[in-house]
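Protein modeling request. Please complete all fields; requests missing the sequence field cannot be processed.
Requester role: graduate student
Desired output: 3D structure, token encoding
Chains: 1
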Amino acid sequence: MASALASHAWAYPALEAGHVMGIAMLFGGLLVFELRLLGLGRAIDAAALARLALPVSLAGFGVCALTGALMFSTQPQELLANAAFRTKLVLIALAGLNAAAFHWRGGPATDDRIGRAQGLLSMGFWLAVIICGRWIAYA
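Delivered output (139 residues):
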């Protein structure tokens, strides 16, 4: 697959564009839900918003995972040696653990300090993932 990507000049930029679209879906859906979790838009039912926003975020994560894996396949040694890339992977794992803990605690029905802290952590993790992703080219 990596050689097929390398042989077509349009393939890697197309993967990058898909990755950016996945990031928009992932972070956009989470941002809307987490802002509600933090108290904005209290008139909106959190569970109803979660049913709308979280599947979009999960789909975005899927797009990012697929496009990211394909881009990784073109230069695995270089990326594994890149501190920004390794940091990005750790942050993704931490974001996933945070999300699992949030949903284990009750998910959208969670309306307490810990849930709000988990929402802030999630936004911070994903912003840091995005920053590390951009930093990969310069590290």
